[in-house]
Amino acid sequence: xxxxxxxxxxxxxxxxxxxxxxxxxxxxxxxxxxxxxxxxxxxxxxxxxxxxxxxxxxxxxxxxxxxxxxxxxxxxxxxxxxxxxxxxxxxxxxxxxxxxxxxxxxxxxxxxxxxxxxxxxxxxxxxxxxxxxxxxxxxxxxxxxxxxxxxxxxxxxxxxxxxxxxxxxxxxxxxxxxxxxxxxxxxxxxxxxxxxxxxxxxxxxxxxxxxxxxxxxxxxxxxxxxxxxxxxxxxxxxxxxxxxxxxxxxxxxxxxxxxxxxxxxxxxxxxxxxxxxxxxxxxxxxxxxxxxxxxxxxxxxxxxxxxxxxxxxxxxxxxxxxxxxxxxxxxxxxxxxxxxxxxxxxxxxxxxxxxxxxxxxxxxxxxxxxxxxxxxxxxxxxxxxxxxxx
Length: 390
Known about the structure:
By secondary structure, this protein is of the alpha/beta class.
């Protein structure tokens, strides 16, 4: 029904991803090359045609759209009062860091993890405390002994949880989330759960909202959510923070307002409502297309680049590639390929030191573009290996 093979030209649109030289092919930042759902575009067109773009408020249907979507698709029942509009998940994370911690305290993250977590912590004068995930036989898991030791440090006051996990594509199961929640509550560490990728799971794979696991998890957490990743609308700056506990919610509400990231632009509310109320069919087709794209990468790497391992992924539209059999410093490989044939990838060290021998690839694009990217990947890797042998 929907055309995900359409090769929309994004150059000349002020795109962060596509503002690159003409020959180059960006497959790095988590930004899909698909036009958003027609139902969302219809809403935006109607808003444009109205012609007046004054100050906006959060409408009742915005609250109901979030409540209905998470209740129906993810089994998370929430009250209207728990929801706070914000302009993005990253602004909400940074506001949380500033409001709920003090300079010099530790904010714990499970690495390798979304690189902007580091920015939100360091830019505000807090310490990054890494609890590296265990990587064994191509799979990632939580090192609970290390996690508890670091949560027990009185200087650790906040944990940023990535659920599902970016970049490794892991859906945390209920038991894992429960153990994390219990440890954080025991050691008086607040949890902020970034769940922006929750709707981008493979068909048949469901994620577990952190706040749905137990009362302990619910009452000691802030959940950041948005339609932006799933519906290819990150530039519209629309998101939500869900906070069941009234004291935590009041503090976050003040933080977001103090930082001036709690007011919607003229398109933010209508686009989110249209996504959740009318975009489900588009999303289901997108999930199938993305699953097939990820499988295309796995098949290609298995057949043409067996020296690379694609880490198993059931969530996000991103792939984490283990290049340790080629180099212990994947940044050199990434930079070499970019210079060699213009393919843009992300070096794994951006996600923490334990990602040093990995790279991240974004296959969320029309298949013809993906195939060209894979051709460049093979060409670049083989040239790099030949250069190493000289």
